[in-house]
Each structure stands twice: as C-alpha cells, then as structure tokens.
Amino acid sequence: MTEEVSVMAENLEQKTAAYLTHELRAPLTSIRCALETIKDCEERLPADERQMLDIALRNTERLKNLIDDILDLSKLQAGRMRVFPVPCDPRALAAEAVESLSPLARKKGIDLALEVSPPCAAVDADPRRTVQVLINLLSNALKFTPAGGRVRVRVEAGKGDRAGYALFSVSDTGCGIAAGDLPRVFRFFSQAAAGERRMEGTGLGLAISRSMVELQGGEIGVESEPGKGSTFSFTLPTHIALEEKDPQPRPAAERA
Ligand code: ADP
Fold it and tell me: How many Cβ atoms sit within 10 Å of the Cβ of residue 74?
C-alpha cells in the first residue's frame, strides 16, 4: 500500500468509526429512556424482573461509555479533538465527579471522599473534559478496590516544579499495578496484568484521559504498589488573568 492509500484507508476508518458511533447513540438513547421509564414504576415488577431491569440498565450505561470512548478515540486520531478551557473552581470539578460516583462507591462498600487543601486558585480547564478525566480515574479506582477499601480525591496547589498548576489526585487502596506495567497503562488498548483479570474494560480510558489533560496543558502520572493501591494524579494550569499572561503594551503617555 502506498503512503497515500494508507492515509486514505486510515481516514476512512476514522470516518466509519465516527459515523457508526454517532448512529449507535440514537437507538441506545431510546432503549435507555424506555428502561428508565419502566424503572420509575419498578415496584409493580417481581423481584427477578427488577433484577433483569437493573442488568439491562447497567449494560446500556457500559455501551454508552464504550461508544463515547470510541468517538473520542476517532477524534483524537484525526487530530479533531478540541478543548474549551475557561476559568473554573477545581474543587467544584472534583466535587461533581465524586458526587456522580458516590452511589457506586456506597453500593460497593468503599469509603469515597474529597479532600481539598486550600489555597486552591481557579484553573484554566474545559469543565466537561476535566470531569470526564476525574470520572475515568475514579471509576478505575472503584473498579480495582475491594469492598471496605478507601478512595480519596485530592485537590491542592502544585508546589516546586508544579507551581502555577493545580494538582488533582485519585488514590485507592486497591490491587495496585506491577512496576513493569506502569509505563504502558496510558497507552491505547493497554490493560495491566496486575489489575483483576476478569474486570471489564477496553484499555481506552487512561489513554483518552492523558490526551485530555495534555490538550489542556497539564501532565498525568501514576504511582502504585501492588497489593497496596495506586495514586493517579494530573496537573492543570492555574488561571492567570489575561493581562498578566499577555500584557498589552500601554500607550507611551500612560507609561510616562
Ligand atoms: P480499562 O479500565 O477500560 O481497562 P483504562 O485505560 O482505564 O482501561 O486502564 C488501563 C488498565 O490500567 C486497566 O485495565 C488496569 O489494568 C490498570 N488500572 C487502571 N486504573 C487502575 C487502578 N486504580 N488500580 C489498578 N489498576 C488500574
């Protein structure tokens, strides 16, 4: 295959992925709405049907996440992923992610909490994408931590070479990751052997998270010890008022 043909094939593949994922969303949304409507009056159902309903709802959620990940992957591959940073309160971003996964943590018997160390300045972040990264890290932490474990989300001001950045971290007391697997957990379609082998997943979440963080001018990393737990953390630049970032030359008369 010539280089030109291979670029065309790649473009076609990306367009097909974008088209298919887009087309899959509408029927999935309709299935989900129907199931949610039934869920609203589930007390009328026998216990085994209620259980089936919950399984169906969980699976529509998994399918939705998978479609979203494939769509993000195809945008990233095509270089079409855009982020829209605005000044945001980092605590509010972390609180939104924690709140959305608190029911799952409760259900799994995991103690989940948010800890914020002031002072914590505003960050320049795309709120939707940043919450998506936090939710990715948090759902992994909940997935790889057994009942009775602890998951902490922390937000603090970066120090030393991280000055000028906010530091977000998600720590768990789960199975941890072997040192040899650490360098590849952020690669697309990569799953570490130290993770519980039967866990569902695609190996897309961390690779997409890394791209989202880097597109926003931050860095992501992980520290882990098998059997003890993992800490995934990322930085985002602190918001600096526009005048400070890009000082407008004042007119000579004003400077005098
Ligand atoms: P997925 O979770 O869909 O497999 P990810 O990209 O989110 O994909 O994660 C890649 C791999 O990294 C996981 O399959 C798992 O092996 C490992 N991993 C991620 N987060 C954790 C964690 N908190 N504890 C242990 N292993 C983890």
Answer: 21
